[in-house]
Amino acid sequence: MRLRSIPPSAWIGMAGIALAFVAALFAPVLAPYGEREIVGAVWEPMGPEHWLGTDNLGRDLLSRLIFGAQTTLFVALAASILSFAIGICLSFVAAVTRGIVDQGLSRLNDLMMSIPTLIFALVVLAALPQKLWILILVMAILDSTRVFRLGRAVAVDIAVMDFVEAARLRGEGTIWIIFREILPNALSPLLAEFGLRFAFAVLFLSTLSFLGLGIQPPQADWGGMVKDNSDGIIFGVPAALIPGGAIAALAVCVNIVVDWLLHRTSSLKGGRDG
Amino acid sequence: MSDASSGGQRRGLPPVATLILQRLGLSALLLIAVSLLIFVGIEALPGDFASTYLGQSATPQAIANITAELGLDRPIWTRYFEWLGGAVQGDFGTSWASGQDVSAQISRRLGNSLFLAAVAAVIAVPLAVGLGMLAVRYVDRLADRLINIVSLAAISLPEFFVGYLLILFFAVKFGVAPFPATVYDSMSLGERLGAIALPVATLVLVVIAHMMRMTRAAILSIMSSQYIETAELKGIGALRTIIHHAAPNAVAPIVNVVALNLAYLVVGVVVVEVVFVYPGMGQYMVDAVTVRDMPVVQACGLIFAAVYILLNMVADIVSILANPRLRHPR
């Protein structure tokens, strides 16, 4: 693949994602002030002292945004990786073994998908204690239903191909078939799906935090920062829009890259659009 | 192939009727399974209600007291059937936090939420379908690409970002729309519509991009099928091709898209209600989750899930009815 064939929109998307990850990784170095440090008056406007102004408690908004990137990206990434691991393992097992295991897993999946994700999350989080790993686990399990659906569809197609049949006749076990025959062939559609799931995880985590059920203060995360600063909106203070814009920008960037990846794979397969 | 004029012998409607009955039965089954999941499944989770309810002040004696007071010491299945029996009759018990009747609150708020979603749908559906058709008409040209990029961005916008953006500009800077979106019983329809202008605009913006992209994809896949090519090659005009050949086949996918997005709208209402402080079901549920008021959470969860399942069922039934192959069985 030549670098020149990548469209400018995809470059912008990748640059945006890279920027967010650099901010997250080097947060303590990059941030001018501490995450919980009160450095000024409440809702100071943007200026040379505080580039993005200060928040509802007088903390530096830029620093909070950088530290927030750390939390938001870490939790979203962890949840989407975990959801992929769960979804792919179960869907491939279902596709390879078929029969009662497949039926059971698929019907359970249908049941979970018949409740809207946000509503399901609200019900479950109301009953569980507020801990970070529980939040990640709930997000991952709820999201793994979508991965399961796609993974099973892809794997069922591959599982009937001749090379899988050959491997079965050779006497290879289920695990070998899943990881050596099916996974390498299913990777390309699943990669684009991973991008989509990650974008969804960022939005979902932000929504939960915004509703006060995600990351708990004083730890900075983008959705929670919108919630903290939302009271300022009626006084014309745009502080809540900055973390909100960051969430939107990151999701747009991921979606642009995924859109390009999907188009690329469909044109590689000889799709009708050039 | 599946041209509507190809008739075939009619032997009544058994295949369609059986399909619809099957779909109805499946929804009923799903609803029961969801109620089990929301009630029994939640109690099976680690951590018991009494200690989360009490929080810091959970002494063994207090836990025992509250368990008995809330009736949590009785077997789970007894409580489930009591709860389900009550729910069927519209009785969801009393709130743990306020001691008020849950059903009374819900009946007031459910109407508000449905009103909000319905107004948003009335605006969003024609607009989205129209824009989707426009994108197909100018496929791969400037208008289509513009719509594609804008809608890709719009999909990624969280509801609260759009909401606060609209509040900042239209309510605070220009002062043309009210905030918060308070409604009460004595309001006339016009006043109500004025009060919910901004939340409706938010919902429309959020849902329209999705609906439009799906409409575009659905119509594009029909327009690239062989019978359309044949119609074009026969030399009949573009308009007749669309009316006689494309439209009958496009109804099902478009209705499906619309119903799926209406289902999404019902959930989108939750965040929008919190942003605009609108007295609906979503806000009620979120408030209940923060104080762990389980009867309210379970009642709201069941109702949201039921509406969602119902809309998905309607989508499936309409697409069964709209499928020419099923309507004219051979």
UniProtKB/TrEMBL annotation, chain A:
Q: Which domain of life is it from?
A: Bacteria
The alphabetized UniProt keywords are:
Cell membrane, Membrane, Transmembrane, Transmembrane helix, Transport
Q: Where are the transmembrane segments?
A: 12-31, 73-97, 117-142, 194-213, 233-262
Q: Where in the cell is it found?
A: Cell membrane
Under Pfam families, the record lists: BPD_transp_1
One GO BP annotation is: transmembrane transport
| GO CC term (a single one) | plasma membrane
Assign the protein's first listed, main location to one coarse class: membrane
- Topology class, membrane: Multi-pass membrane protein
Keyword Membrane recorded: yes
Residue stretches making up the ABC transmembrane type-1 domain: 69-258
InterPro entries for this protein:
BP-dependent_transpt_permease, MetI-like, MetI-like_sf
Against PANTHER family, the record matches this protein to: OLIGOPEPTIDE TRANSPORT SYSTEM PERMEASE PROTEIN APPC, PEPTIDE ABC TRANSPORTER PERMEASE PROTEIN
Q: Which family does it belong to?
A: Belongs to the binding-protein-dependent transport system permease family.
Report what the protein is called.
Peptide/nickel transport system permease protein
Tell me what organism the protein belongs to. Pseudoroseicyclus aestuarii
UniProtKB/TrEMBL annotation, chain B:
Q: Establish whether keyword Membrane is in the entry.
A: yes
- Which sequence ranges are marked TM in the entry? 20-42, 114-134, 146-172, 192-212, 250-276, 296-322
Query: PROSITE patterns per the record?
Result: ABC_TM1
UniProt entry tagged with the keyword Cell membrane? yes
Concerning its family, UniProt says: Belongs to the binding-protein-dependent transport system permease family.
- All copies of the ABC transmembrane type-1 domain together span 110-315
Q: What is this protein called?
A: Peptide/nickel transport system permease protein
Among Pfam families, the record links this protein to: BPD_transp_1 (PF00528), BPD_transp_1_N (PF19300)
Compartments where located: Cell membrane
Per the record, its GO cellular-component terms are: plasma membrane
What membrane topology does the UniProt entry give? Multi-pass membrane protein
Q: Which domain of life is it from?
A: Bacteria
InterPro entries xrefs: BPD_transp_1_N (IPR045621), MetI-like (IPR000515), MetI-like_sf (IPR035906)
GO terms in the biological process aspect are: transmembrane transport
Key words of the record: Cell membrane, Membrane, Transmembrane, Transmembrane helix, Transport
